[in-house]
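haha ok so turns out i had the wrong file open the whole time. this is the CORRECT one, sorry everyone. sequence first:
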Amino acid sequence: MPVNATLLQQAEALIHEQVVNSIMQDTPKQSIVMQLGRRLPNMTSNQTRVPVLSMLPMAYWVNGETGFKQTTNQAWDNVYLTAGELAVIVPIPEAVVSDSSFDIIGEITPRINEAIGAKVDSAIAFGNGRPVEWQNDLVTLARQAGNNVSGGITYDTLMGENGLLSKVEQSGYTVNGVMAAMTARGALRGIKDDAGRPIFATDMQGATRYGLDGAPMYFPENGSFDPSVAQMIAGNWSQLVYSIRQDVTTKILTEGVIQDPETQQIVYNLAQQDMIALRVVFRMGWALPNPATRLNPDRANVPFAYIEAGTPVTTYTATFTVQDHESANVEGARVNVNGAIKKTNASGQAVFDLRPGTYPYTVKKSGKRTMSGELVVTSKAETVSVQFPE
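then structure:
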């Protein structure tokens, strides 16, 4: 006589899968640059002007009781913070929002905030996607000052006489923070002294704290660090300032159309297709004012340095030749290429090493009219001739 039983196959329609009431995901990561930089009061317009000391006064000894006292002057320059905008629209069918057992809007919003932080870090540190209104990125500014270090991550390239920290100190500042690629952690653990002992000792029972000469190190986990450009960036981050014009704002759109940015074709009609769209907007500006100091009177140096990538990025020389109205070379003219400053030599020249892109510039000389223009760097060396009018 057969023995019957109600097995799983017969009762499958009555069994429901258990759904865990949480989504497995990583914690959203914040912007490292905005964490380390100095925040100014919020911008009240699209552009904020910051007066910056550009020339220091001098003092002179007076020779003898009847010697003449010499004169000196002090000067200021303007540095501008211009708001750049980050924005995104996320279309979602209303049926999906209604049927979901999770707060979809609540899940999307923190991830967009994370993406905004990553975009800010990448643009300020490496110039990736940099808005045209913003000044040069930290790596570009440091390169013009000669603050790029090659040779990989070793004790000498970090702590040596002409290493990463020393480059920043030569500008008159101490390093108070270091940002590095995640791969740099392994390189740091591999540095050993002459006896073969690791310099960055690892505690097998606790987290290893990384630092350089007392400066804390940060390893961005938001995907913003570009190891193809640099392995490590060190600097005095209090000299980097930023201001927010419009904090992260969200708006739910229920009507309107969404167009393809390239073809301008309508992709979604929200009302007709029963959809909503989450629109997120963020606007901010930043600058490296780089005021004159006794160790950096010409502002040609900057308080940042970096270690080159294994294969340094390709740059092209841009040579400025400055002359007066009589075609004589002008020495000591200050050439400012979107925040990077150099003075012309005896031949009236200043040479920059730039990646392809568009760079506004100004040329100043005491007693001369300020000249300005735009430099476009392609895949070749560029020359710019500037002549002061009479």
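Confidence is low (pLDDT under 50) at residues 18-27.
again sry for the mixup
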